[in-house]
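User: Could you check the structure of this?
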Amino acid sequence: MLRVVIGLGIPFTAIVLLLPFINMIQFTIWHIPFLYLWLFAWFVLTSLCLAVCWFGFDRHRTERS
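Assistant: Sure, the predicted structure tokens are below.
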């Protein structure tokens, strides 16, 4: 269950559920709106969450046919 929360729950919450709140922030870094930075950062962070799941939980599992 923990791997589902890490692999799917965290990215889903950050992208879908928090997006309306992030959209209210009127902040820019290097003239890029914070909303775009948030979404592009979660491309990498989602991959990181999936890597944590694989290395932490599924890497040592045997292959099932």
